[in-house]
Specification:
heterotrimer; A alpha+beta; B mainly alpha; C alpha+beta; B: mainly alpha; 3 helical TM bundles of succinate and fumarate reductases; 5 helices; C: alpha+beta; FAD/NAD(P)-binding domain; D-Amino Acid Oxidase, Chain A, domain 2; six-stranded mixed β-sheet
Chain lengths: 252, 146, 395
């Protein structure tokens, strides 16, 4: 197996494949929003995040971007790639053309460059926001005697891609958005100490549940199995018809 | 100045620009159904046909107001709107009405949490029903079924 | 609870990862004024990138007892102060071949010696609890491993520190340290949000820059023996297990599968680099993760790849000719007044994500000693705010 510390990384420059990245830039104080274009070397598995960090390290250290886990689990690296919401860490360069535009997410204030302010995103969630839930996957697993059940982290990684993609959120700026509503539905499915009436009251607020116009872009943009659209509809069904309506534990 | 003050603090405290997706081309805007899945396409067309129907309603009311003007104005108007070109526009109008109506049923169902996992099936079922209906309507409008 | 900023002393922490967050939280609870700066997003250095294992210490029981004891102690504390942050299903060490079986007895003895609860299961029992396990499993031992979301756990420390008066500032890079008469008295900062630069003064600067510790130390004219040691990790689509599955053998490549939400993370390999900003992801390492991971869970072989990435462990110790696995995973503080005659500057580095609170306690003790502040550590029993409070509960 290779030892990368000794590998000869020099390559014949003429054979290195490159892509052109057009990156949104904004520094506070000078007021200007503009795009910078960079030529970036790419390999077979290069992601948009790899390319952006290459730019940071080799071309422009002032490029600001959010990232953390590098495997679609923390939800910090959300951006728009050619207008589509993506997590930069798993968005493959080769799924896009020769000239790729990278912009920050929509519907959230921009702090700088590709960094958005997540304060307003988190402010939209219901007050109770547990991130651990029961785990029914893999199926047929028997928990040990000392565990009531297996548990796992919630599917939603709070990345904001759904809020950015939502056509209602584009014009109704106070709309709580798909992630917050999906989180509320999860509280109905698995209360974890939260009162049902509180959740339903929260969801029925003017900027809540009924603002959704069934665009279904949120589930399409969602990088995990959080299925926000289905959860919003499940919530609506409970409010419309009463009773309990649950979604099956979902795995693509 | 306090010794714990950080550079750029004043500017960081200001609200930042927010990008909203407008009506532009897909995938940036909601209007363009290209590059979208069924849900997004239906949404875009629903908004378009809705706007179209509202515009038509206004036109329709204006037209009806012609009845107030008199017989001859009405007769020449009728001659215009029974011309082939206008009948084609009628078919387009009815197509829009069918789409908005049938998709509206789909949105009402899905939006109440019913048949959510079958929203694509609903869309294509509506398409089939709508296609049959528009075919029947077109034949009727152009007199084939008289 | 004492009031924030009770003491005039101002500490500047360089580095917004697990270490920095832990130290900021500890010092804030002692009433010290804290400013923390991080050049990028919090946890974007290396802390956010590990596979999410909350160590029981089992992996270190044989061979690095000190780290093992630290892990079992700290993981127990973390479960208490950060409830609701962990997939607390436990972990298994499994033997899949005869060679592994030779490790079984030393492993059980070492766990007992280090105070790590270890319970042997029959293969049938293990397969009932983890149906995707290699059906050839010969022995299984249950330990109190758990899964954590690294970024969210660390963010709880930042949220609590911020609530207690700490000033947390990401996208603020240290360009240089201000040194006068053998004393570090502050830093020159560059704000990436505005492009502005400015100086900040501090009574003490804490270097918590992880794999970049030596670069920060060099700004003060001192050195720390930092060996960044990356490894490749592979995230597979599909939750293949609920417990952390470890291979029962001496530390090696691809000997762990960590469940995380709907993913399964296989890790890892090890090599050493000079520059932690230049990390590659060699495809043969990824292939090895598939190969070794499927020895633990055969279904891993055909699971689709969600992501493959690398992250640099901050190992304390001089660079040798090895892969990095021979260096200890324990942590160290450096009081540069003692080691290099430079006052006002300490480095805290090394360690594992699991021991972040313990590392911070040691560093905060040192910091307070140097500042002449007599306050006990309160982090063992202070329950942390939820991670969302970092955004929504700004004081």
């Amino acid at each position: 197996m290779s030892d990368p510390s000794t590998a000869d990384n020099r390559q014949d420059v003429s054979k290195i494949e490159t892509r052109s990245l057009r990156v949104y830039r904004y520094k506070r104080g000078d007021g200007g929003e503009h795009f910078d274009e960079f030529e970036v070397p790419v390999g077979p598995h290069t992601t948009v995040l790899d390319a952006l960090r290459w730019i940071q390290h080799h071309r422009d250290p002032s490029l600001a971007l959010r990232h953390s886990c590098h495997h679609a689990s923390c939800g910090t690296c959300g951006v728009q790639v050619d207008g589509s919401e993506e997590l930069a860490c798993v968005c493959q360069i080769h799924d896009h053309g020769d000239r790729i535009t990278v912009e920050p997410l929509a519907n959230l204030p921009i702090i700088t460059d590709l960094v958005v302010d997540m304060t307003s995103f988190f402010a939209r969630f219901p007050h109770e926001h547990p991130i651990i839930r029961a785990s029914g996957l893999p199926a047929n697993a028997e928990p040990p005697e000392d565990l009531e059940q297996y548990v796992r982290l919630e599917d939603c990684i709070e990345c904001g891609l759904c809020l950015s993609a939502c056509p209602t959120a584009a014009t109704a700026h106070e709309y709580v958005g798909p992630a917050a509503l999906a989180s509320a539905q999860r509280l109905l499915e698995e209360p974890r100490g939260v009162q049902r009436e509180d959740v339903l009251a929260w969801a029925s607020q003017p900027e809540g549940l009924w603002r959704c116009h069934v665009g279904l872009e949120c589930t399409r943009a969602c990088p995990t199995d959080a299925i926000p659209a289905e959860r919003i509809m499940a919530l609506r069904r409970e409010l419309t018809f009463g009773g309990h309506h649950e979604t099956k534990e979902h795995q693509r | 100045m306090s010794r714990t003050a950080l550079p750029g603090s004043a500017e960081r405290a200001l609200p930042g620009p927010v990008h909203h997706k407008g009506a532009g081309p897909a995938p940036n805007g909601w209007l363009d159904p290209r590059g979208r899945a069924v849900g997004g396409r239906a949404f875009a067309l629903h908004r378009l046909t809705g706007l179209m129907l509202v515009a038509y309603l206004y036109v329709h009311l204006c037209v009806l107001s012609m009845l107030l003007i008199g017989n001859s104005a009405w007769s020449s108007f009728v001659a215009l709107v029974t011309s082939t070109g206008f009948l084609c526009l009628d078919v387009v109008l009815i197509l829009g009405l069918l789409f908005h109506g049938l998709n509206g049923i789909r949105v009402a169902l899905v939006g109440s949490g019913l048949l959510v996992s079958r929203q694509r099936t609903l869309f294509w079922t509506g398409t089939v029903i709508g296609s049959c209906a528009i075919l029947f309507t077109a034949l009727h409008v152009f007199g084939a079924l008289r | 609870m004492i009031e924030p900023g009770r003491y005039d002393a101002h500490v500047l922490i360089v580095g917004g990862g697990a270490t920095g967050g832990g130290v900021a939280h500890d010092l804030a609870l002692r009433g010290v004024r804290v400013t923390l700066v991080e050049r990028g997003e919090l946890t974007s250095g290396t802390s956010g990138r590990h596979h999410g294992l909350l160590h029981s210490g089992g992996r270190y029981a044989v061979g690095d007892r000190e780290s093992a004891v630290e892990c079992i102690r700290e993981s127990t504390i973390l479960k208490r102060i950060a409830p609701g942050s962990f997939e607390e299903n436990g972990g298994l060490f499994v033997a899949v071949c005869d060679e592994d079986m030779e490790y079984l007895e030393p492993f059980l003895d070492a766990c007992a010696d280090a105070g790590i609860p270890a319970q042997r299961l029959t293969p049938e029992h293990a397969l009932r609890e983890e149906p995707n396990l290699n059906p050839e499993v010969k022995a299984a031992v249950r330990v109190p491993d758990a899964t954590v979301d690294p970024m969210r756990l660390i963010l709880r420390f930042f949220a609590t520190a911020q609530r207690n008066g700490a000033q947390i500032r990401p996208f603020m890079e240290v360009k240089d340290l201000c040194v006068h008469d053998g004393r570090v008295c502050g830093a020159l900062l560059h704000d990436h949000a505005t492009g502005q630069e400015g100086e900040i003064s501090a009574d003490l600067v804490v270097n918590a820059a992880g794999p970049w510790s030596d670069k920060i130390a060099a700004m003060a004219g001192v050195s720390v023996p930092m060996t960044p040691s990356p490894g490749v990790l592979l995230a597979l689509r599909g939750r293949l297990c609920n417990m952390v599955i470890n291979r029962m053998h001496k530390s090696g490549d691809g000997d762990i599968v960590v469940p995380q939400r709907g993913l399964s993370v296989v890790g890892t390999t090890s090599w050493v680099v000079d520059d932690p900003d230049e990390l590659t992801v060699p495809e043969d390492h990824v292939e090895r993760m598939y190969a070794e991971g499927s020895k633990l869970i055969p279904a891993a072989r055909s699971a689709p790849r969600r992501a493959a990435w690398s992250a640099a462990r901050p190992l304390v110790g001089a660079k040798g000719s090895g892969s990095g696995r021979e260096l200890s995973r324990t942590f160290q503080t450096f009081d540069h007044q003692q080691t290099d005659g430079v006052e006002g500057f300490v480095t805290i580095t090394g360690g594992k994500s699991t021991t972040l609170r313990g590392m911070a306690e040691l560093c905060a003790d040192l910091a307070c000693r140097k500042l002449g502040i007599d306050e006990p550590c309160r982090t063992r029993d202070t329950v942390l705010l939820p991670h969302t409070a970092y955004y929504t509960a700004v004081a």
